[in-house]
Amino acid sequence: MRKTQKHIVLFLKLLLIVWCVWLMSQAVSAQTLPAVNDGQPHGDPPFRLEEGWIPLLNGKNLNGWHGEDRQNNEWFAAPGVYWNPTKTPERLLAIPGSGDTILNGTRGNTTHLITDQKFGDLELYAEFLIPQKGNSGIYFGSLYKVQIFDSYGVERPLEWEDCGAIPTRGDKERFHGSPPLKNASRKAGEWQTYQIWFQAPRFDAAGKKVQNAKFLRVLLNGIVVQENVEVDGPTWAHLNIPEAATNPIMLQGDHGGVAYRNIYVRPLRPMVKPTENPER
Fold this sequence. Notes:
Jelly Rolls; eight-stranded antiparallel sheet; 2 helices; 19 strands; 12% helix; globular; disordered C terminus
């Protein structure tokens, strides 16, 4: 009799455990992540948190990209990148091969790299790494640049050339542009992140531009460095193409070593403020 009671008690305990596990699984499966399109960082990169992101790197090679100068293109894919702050502080090294990292050659001076595909309004996420005195940039529409520069530890007032800046055309004497709101740069040799909301220029039915391109928001390493910056025309050193509703993306390759990985884009969506998000 006692053995039977023990068996019943053991069975009920096991049944209770199974029921609790089932309840927990139902609760987890019912959870949904809140919208993250509020211009703020949310832990993991956004392409891991929401659907709709399109990778521009295939993790193997440079398919989907081409050099501005197709005959002198030293960009290559690699499984990783190496930086030696003592012996070669201004260079990046890597062994070409199948990998998810791309590098503008071992000299850090080659042609610009351009997507085969064209884009209009978009949100972009990218990770980049530069050596000391590194200088590069991402050209939206191959025309409008967001600056990449070794600005870590800069104590002077930030300028158009610093990381997170948006340079404009300027004049024959000097560049102009929108300096970053804060110095959010990390040290040379460390991976850094950009998340950028870009609105392409608008044109009427006759092809006349009626609205300039605009950077709605730029996050550098999760920190807001630009907001609602209108650009009235291309940055210097842009691709020799006219402004248009859709154009390719271009990575600068001729001003020092730079490596990129995890470049993702998705169509631009209306940005919500954190206070307007009902999930928060």
